[in-house]
Write a structure and sequence with these properties.
homodimer, about 500 residues, Rossmann fold, 2 domains, five-stranded parallel sheet, 20 helices, about 50% helix
């Protein structure tokens, strides 16, 4: 629709100045309400070089409390950023509750510049559309307000502005050879922008096209549309708060889980917990698998593959000891073990996936998560720490998250350490008995144990809904620790070997 | 995750019979509540041939009131169905308020059979994923409960069942050569099913995999999961009704529209309403364009292209007279003019796009809509006949709808007939004066006229948000009727010519 944009729109200076003063105070008031109501706000400015993005942002923040906003100027990824999936640097910059994040250029870089300049092959920028829409939908579902502007000027206007900048002693440096090259490709960028607007204007994150020739008109439109969107978001939240007042209580929740038992645990019913490994064989295998993993760790480093290992399992299933064996022979510069507990601080004021985006390994490195994002559909579901709508949509969100990692070439191995209820009791008692193990056993463990059957439903639902071709779950029979350790190591090794054997290179 | 499904699950007969009797009554009670609460329910059964879909459906409807459900057995499209986009035959079968529609096979045909058998090229079934997800999301957003089952059996089990059927005198006919051929392709179908489950298990329409070896287990699982989904939907609706109780009143709505005036009407500000065509030239052009359209109508018929023309415009903008000229020289067997007013009956108890899916032209035919689905973002928005969330997401829904039509090769021409407020007044007065025109003018026209400025915002938002590369809007300057008619005809002709000139064949 860009051909329809009336680039002649303008505003006279007196009108602008009057309106701007009023609007500035209005936005400052709105910022306070955004803060009080804990709304995360994300403003994106995209558009042509020299269209006035920086200028619009300067005006936008004119009266805002600087503690409440952050402006992110996005350029080509740094070498450090290039070692992660392309959305990484944006996910970690998403605003927390009551914060405003303003992006001068954004994740749309990939479907504009990377596309037109040929830095990303077709497959990659096509995938990016789905990833971008999923990213924005997840944030919106979580309560984030998204406002996206496309600042539009004509090729002639761009040329005029470049020339004007070049005539100025102070601004000359701003116009680079790349800018002129991009200018000559205006028609190709126009097609890309048109397609981008079409494919990413969604119900939750629509684009606003700004006629950006006249600076007064442009500034005030960005201003007014931002304010209107904030007002609408505040009003909508008043009408339908995110946590519904009549959410089902713990009893109703547990009844629901109990009712689901019959048909939701089939996946776990026939796990053969009798599987064991004789001690001597265990020691032989352990050595062999550790050597294999060591080699693979190095291969991943050389080939710049990231590896994510997820450990989930019953309390006392032996996650800690299992992880110790995995890293036993690894070079500690190549991996990190990340224990995940209840979220606090920034982790609690952002989308629940934010903390995991912050912790994903860079290319060539290995991250082992001792518990993970799956807490959302396990403890948070069973204990009611999130709403039903939240854990239900989490299955899909998690699949999308893991697909993003996979697109980047990341290897995923997800292990569910499974033990019997009797075995857990035995281990709990042992922990009580042995002084050096006692610290491991808490009241919470006993509490969780009481809800074993409910957790069982959540576990089976989790495995059933998030075992995908690109990130499958492996159920590890863990009544015998030796068997479980070797199986875990083999699973990880095989996942890495399979990935290294694939023809398709990672997308970087 | 299909490799994880435990196909050994079973239930003993006594247990099943007791549970089934109780479940049957429970479902009958739920059907009444679904009816009272106006919830549309859509149940999909997919799975292997001979997995027991028909049997599960028979049990499912056991005690239901037959007036409240419809079972749709889906085979390959009929010749009549093949003349429309692939989702057409499913859209028109979606359930209305309080109805239950049960599909024995469904729109997933395209990503399973059409894909594996090579009846649809890769591009087409890849697009189908996006269309399917959009279809299901639109229904869910509108309040429809979706329950999707995949009935899973092993290749060996399928073979056993085919053989057993063949041994029976009565059932022999059920197993065809095609069934055996598909059986031999079990691994290819398995891959396709796996990908299908992954890509279409969304938050609003997740799949339930059913271990279908044992008939008792299979039947009861389908039963229980359907009942549980209905209960959850009824409970959720109680907590958050679709039309929020505190929706903004008409004054707030109008204030919102008024506030948007300044920056939302740019598209319409500089339309040159002075454009006219001298009468003699008009008559010459009219003849020429009519002949051109006649030829194109025939070309579309020959090449099996469907054409959709949308007329929207101000009251008294001349839509009727314009349409008359367009069809002036056409073969009446090739087109239909479809006047759209307020929805009644079935049109009002389905998704608002349902009535338009019901009316789209078949391949080779032309449909001219005098008003259209754009009512959602025009009159329904301004008059508050739908909620803000509804008209906001409609922009995206409409784009997806039109993209579905385009994928099928349908040509879209969308015309906004634009006149000035003064010209409208002149025409209203003329209608009052001339007895034979008086019937055209209603109180509603005067009422709408009072809200001119508010409608102007809605019109500009509509054009800005739904003008896409595949279905662009054309603003027709219509103060001069002759000019408007010729421009409309040319726009339609050019859209058809452009489409006929494209290399890519439609997807059938």
């Amino acid at each position: 629709m860009l051909e329809m944009v009336d680039l002649g729109k303008s505003l006279d200076k007196a009108d602008y100045e009057k309106s701007y003063r009023a609007a500035r105070d209005r936005l400052a008031r709105l910022q306070r309400r955004i803060y009080e109501e804990h709304v995360p706000v994300l403003v994106v400015l995209e558009g042509w070089d020299a269209a006035g993005k920086g200028d619009a942002i300067e005006k936008l923040v004119g009266r805002l409390d600087p503690r409440g906003y952050r402006v992110h100027a996005i350029h080509a990824p740094t070498p450090e950023e290039a070692l992660r999936p392309f959305l990484w640097r944006f996910w970690i910059r998403t605003p927390g509750h009551g914060e405003i994040a303003i992006f001068d250029r954004s994740w749309y870089h990939r479907v504009l510049v990377d596309r037109v300049e040929g830095d990303a092959p077709r497959r990659v920028w096509q995938q990016a559309y789905a990833e971008i829409n999923a990213f924005e939908r997840m944030l919106a579902d979580d309560g984030t307000l998204l406002v996206k502007f496309w600042l539009h000027i004509s090729a002639e206007e761009q040329k005029r502005r470049f020339k004007k900048l070049e005539r100025s002693k102070f601004d000359r440096w701003r116009v680079t050879k790349e800018d002129w090259r991009a200018h000559r490709r205006y028609p190709a960028y126009l097609d890309a922008a048109e397609e981008m607007l079409e494919r990413t204007s969604t119900a939750v994150a629509p684009w606003v096209v700004v006629e950006a020739t006249d600076k007064y008109y442009r500034r005030l439109k960005v201003f007014e549309e931002t304010a209107r969107a904030m007002e609408a978001a505040l009003a909508a939240r008043k009408r339908a708060p995110l946590a519904p007042a009549h959410a089902p209580g713990p009893e109703a929740r547990k009844a629901e889980l109990r009712a689901a038992q019959r048909f939701h645990t089939a996946l776990l019913d026939d796990v053969d917990l009798g599987r064991r490994m004789p001690v001597r064989r265990y020691h032989d295998e352990l050595k062999k698998e550790q050597a294999r993993l060591r080699k693979l760790e190095f291969a991943c480093y050389e080939r710049r593959r990231a590896v994510v290992v997820v450990y989930e399992g019953w309390d006392a299933a032996g996650k800690g000891g299992n992880i110790k064996r995995v890293i036993g022979a690894l070079d500690p510069r190549g991996y990190a073990v990340l224990p995940i507990g209840a979220p606090h601080g920034d982790d609690a004021t952002h989308h629940y996936l934010w903390r995991f985006w912050n912790r994903i390994p860079k290319a060539g490195h290995l991250a082992i998560f001792d518990r993970s994002w799956y807490g959302r559909v396990l403890v948070e579901r069973v204990e009611g720490f999130c709403t039903e709508a939240e854990w239900r949509r989490a299955f899909h969100e998690i699949n999308e998250f893991e697909l993003s990692l996979t697109h980047f070439g990341t290897v995923l191995a997800k292990l569910w350490l499974h033990i019997s209820k009797e075995e857990q009791l035995r281990r709990f008692r042992e922990r009580q008995r042995l002084a050096f193990k006692r610290y491991k056993l808490t009241d919470e463990d006993w509490r969780n144990r009481k809800e074993w059957d409910l957790y069982r439903v959540a576990v089976a639902d989790m495995i059933g809904n998030t075992s995908t071709s690109y990130a499958p779950w492996t159920i590890v029979e863990a009544n015998d620790k030796g068997f479980a350790r070797v199986k875990a190591m083999r699973t990880i090794a095989e996942a890495i070997e399979r990935s290294l054997g694939e023809k398709r290179p990672p997308e970087r």
